[in-house]
Amino acid sequence: MEDLIPLVAVLSIFVGLPWIILHYVTRWKTAATLTSDDEAMLEELYSLARRLQDRVETVERLVAADNPGFQPQRLADEREFGGQLSERSQREYDRMISSKGRTGQ
Predict the structure, then answer these.
(1) What's the confidence (pLDDT) of residue 102?
(2) What's the maximum distance between 2 C-alpha atoms anywhere in the chain?
(3) Three-class SS of residue 68?
(4) What pLDDT was estimated at residue 87?
(5) Are 86 and 74 in contact (CB under 8 A)?
């Protein structure tokens, strides 16, 4: 019985502990990646957001044409940053899509 305790200790240190650590490391790596379905859903959501943004801008232009004093807060914020918010987002998205095409994913 006394000879069994060191054997269990050695096995748990050199077999059990690395097995548990490697198990959770692989779980962590697989959970951190996006699946192709996730990427497709993100692309679809991004295109939907762009269409909705275009619609909102159209409505804002129509309201501004009817009411000269109307100045939407969103457009005022973009003017404050030089109108580069949507352009910068578009460039980042285009860069992401082009790098995805180069890697062959």
Answers:
(1) 52
(2) 92
(3) coil
(4) 66
(5) no
Report domain extents, the chain. 1-33, 34-105
Q: Which amino acid is at 60?
A: E
Residue 91: per-residue pLDDT: 72
Tell if the pTM clears 0.85, that is, is over it: no
Provide the 10 A C-beta neighbour count for residue 90. 12
Nearest to 78 by CA among 62, 90, 96: 90
How far apart (Å, rounded) are the C-alpha atoms in residues 86 and 53? 10
- Exposure of 30 in the CB half-sphere (CA atoms within 13 A): 6
- Spatial separation of the C-alpha atoms in residues 79 and 51, rounded to whole Å: 21
Token pair in block for residue 20: 């548990």
**Residue 38 confidence (pLDDT):** 87
Angle, helices 73-80/85-103, rounded to nearest 10 degrees: 80
